[in-house]
Request: fold
Amino acid sequence: MQLGTLKHAVDHKPVASDFAIIEADRPVCPEGGIVIRVVHLSLDPYVGSRLRGRHMGEPAPEPMKGAIPGAIIGQVVESRSPNFAEGDWAHAMEGGWQEFVAIAASEARKIDPNVAPLAAHAGVLGMPGLTAWSGITQLAKVGPSDTVLVDAAAGPVGGTVGQIARIKGADRVVGIAGGAEKCSLVTDTYGFDACIDYKSDGWRDRLAEALPDGLSVFFENVSADMAMLALTHAQTYARGVLCGLVDAYHTETQSQHPLNAGLIIGKRAQLFGLVVYDFYPRWDEYVAEAAPWIASGQLKFAEDRADGLENAPALFERLMNGKNKGKAVVTVAPEQV
Reply:
């Protein structure tokens, strides 16, 4: 079978030439485990940091041997667990870049392929969607009268954040994204009230114009500097969700991420650190709530697809440089065999 791995250890933002697709033995089903035929592979920004050993203490894969980390969606082809039968569909966060994955049954979730397009379980119903739902509904508790600001708004987390905020009753949703094409996705597809292109001149002035009454909630995906900018527009007692610091994922040294404590105090702001791992036990609850939103058209998503594991490195490089248009997904194999 094919397996995607690193050619060598990396200490920089990964590029396509850092990866190799090699042949490996098909894994053996462990006692109490399952073997999954991978159909869709999720590519996510945090993996770039993990490949350098800088994500939550998780080790980088061994070059020319270990599979690149990545969530997978696929079909069970062998089971030694009473919880899965051959033919069941499953999602696993630690599947990785390979055609077949052998894992403990406890590391996989059974999914219903009929509630949404199968690849949606990599994005809007996967970790990005769960992240958005957790921050908006469980931490910030967005509701009527809220004005919400989210950066990286064209991404799978940011785009879902704004839509769930609107579904939960927010009065106004404003996004920040890079480039006219991404801002068009944010307003025309995701339905935000406004999107500010941070690559354009005078964007900070336009952000102020888009938030005439300030904001009550902000969802931070990019940097401490952007969080502090959001706080300058915050109403008293605003809530902020600190989810990602993508600007620091590929710096030579780990940033200290300075925060303006005086501004936080002056605004009486509540800041919530969000690590989606905390909400894994509630994944099925999220899917049960979100699937009807997708079916009704309230919750939309966009995907940037590549076909074949051999094309994963190029898509991953595009993701690392913020050039992806929607959720980055690799289709490894056809859904039907």
The mean pLDDT is 94. Residues 127-277 form a domain with the Rossmann fold fold (CATH 3.40.50.720).
